[in-house]
């Protein structure tokens, strides 16, 4: 499965990067495939291991913030491996085809 999630501390002011870094650190130390962008961290693995990492990432922020918001989206597709990369590669392949077609026109 792939889980995209965002952990946001509440009640700590506007600058939350330090708190978010605590959550991302947990993800990176997990050893699971992951990506972090401006809005979400995506992590790939089996249900129990991914959810454990999400739980620990929330706990890391919760240890320093009075309240935590969690947004989570999951793609549960048994048997798929390396979805973090392959899904993006598929989109890029279609974009490259579109680019080639517009040059021929």
From TrEMBL:
Pfam families: Thiamine_BP. One of its GO terms (cellular component) is cytosol. InterPro entries: MTH1187/YkoF-like (IPR029756), Thiamine_BP (IPR002767), UPF0045_domain (IPR051614). Signal peptide: none annotated. Residues 3-92 form the Thiamine-binding protein domain. PANTHER family: UPF0045 PROTEIN ECM15. Belongs to the UPF0045 family. This is UPF0045 protein. It comes from Streptomyces echinoruber. The lineage of its organism: Bacteria, Bacillati, Actinomycetota, Actinomycetes, Kitasatosporales.
């Amino acid at each position: 499965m792939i889980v995209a999630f965002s952990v946001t501390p509440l009640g700590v002011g506007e600058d939350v990067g330090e708190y978010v870094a605590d959550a991302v650190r947990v993800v990176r130390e997990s050893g699971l495939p992951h990506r972090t962008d401006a809005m979400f961290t995506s992590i790939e693995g089996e249900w129990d291991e991914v959810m454990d990492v999400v739980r620990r990432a929330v706990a890391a922020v919760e240890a320093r913030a009075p309240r935590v918001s969690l947004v989570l989206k999951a793609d549960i597709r048994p048997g798929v491996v390396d979805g973090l990369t392959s899904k993006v590669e598929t989109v890029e392949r279609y974009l490259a085809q579109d680019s080639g077609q517009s040059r021929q026109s």
